[in-house]
Amino acid sequence: MLAGYAGQMEGVIDHPDQAPRGIALVAHPHPLYGGTLDNKVAATLARAFASLGYVTARINFRGVGKSEGVHDHGIGETDDMHLLLSHMQRQYPGLPVALSGFSFGTFVMARLQERLITAGNRAERLVLVGAAAGKWAMPPIPANTILIHGELDETIPLKDVLDWLRPQDIPVIVIPGADHFFHRKLSHIKGWVTQLWGGQVETDAASAD
């Protein structure tokens, strides 16, 4: 539990097997539609970063689980993730930071990265899965952002993501046959994040699903 702006925030930390090489934060999907820190995509992102040596933190957004407060449409949630980041940086000073999110969580994390850039303290990289383009006012993102989207996403159509990215000239990894929640495709998320951080693509779908 961590004291937040709207009350206590419930969270979980995934520790790497070795001394941490960085800090990663993961933001879950929309809390009013069942999103929690235990969401499978969010948990997959946490496992991916832990396997890369990052100490990884997730919180339940306001009004979810034991987290107090009420949903604030991404505004208060961005403040809460910033508070979590500050807490983790006090615990693990001097380490690089990665931000990641799924669906509504991508809106929160893109806003947090924009805030950090303005303050001259950007995260090293952003990972957005099922980016919420067309649902929320997604800000511009850095060119090195990793974007992963399902070909058959029925919640956030791929077209909306491409329309958002086209002016920024940023590519997106499209997983063939994947729906919004990446049913039976979770291994692709962990595999691509791991590969693009310099590791190997994992092919054992069962380990991630």
Key terms:
6 helices, 209 residues, seven-stranded mixed β-sheet, Rossmann fold, alpha/beta
Structural class: alpha/beta
Q: Averaged pLDDT, please?
A: 94
CATH class: Alpha Beta
Instruction: Work out the count of structural domains.
Output: 1
| Rg measurement, Å | 16 Å
What is the helix tally?
A: 6
User: What's the number of extended β-strand segments?
Assistant: 9
Write the layout of secondary structure elements.
Blueprint: E1 2-4, E2 7-9, E3 11-14, E4 22-27, H1 40-51, E5 54-59, H2 75-91, E6 97-102, H3 104-118, E7 125-129, E8 146-150, H4 158-165, E9 173-175, H5 186-196, H6 205-208
Parallel strand pairs: 4-5, 4-6, 6-7, 7-8, 8-9
Antiparallel strand pairs: 1-2, 3-5
Helix pairs in contact: 1-5, 2-3
Can you describe this structure?
32% of the residues lie in helices and 20% in strands. The protein is of the alpha/beta class and 209 residues long. The protein has one domain: Alpha/Beta hydrolase fold, catalytic domain (Rossmann fold), CATH 3.40.50. A seven-stranded mixed sheet has the order 3-5-4-6-7-8-9, with helices on both faces. It has a two-stranded antiparallel sheet with strand order 1-2. Helix 1 packs parallel to helix 5. The longest helix has 17 residues. It is globular and about 40 Å long. It starts with a strand and ends with a helix.
Quick structural gist:
With 209 residues, this protein is an alpha/beta fold. It contains six helices and nine strands, in the order ββββαβαβαββαβαα.
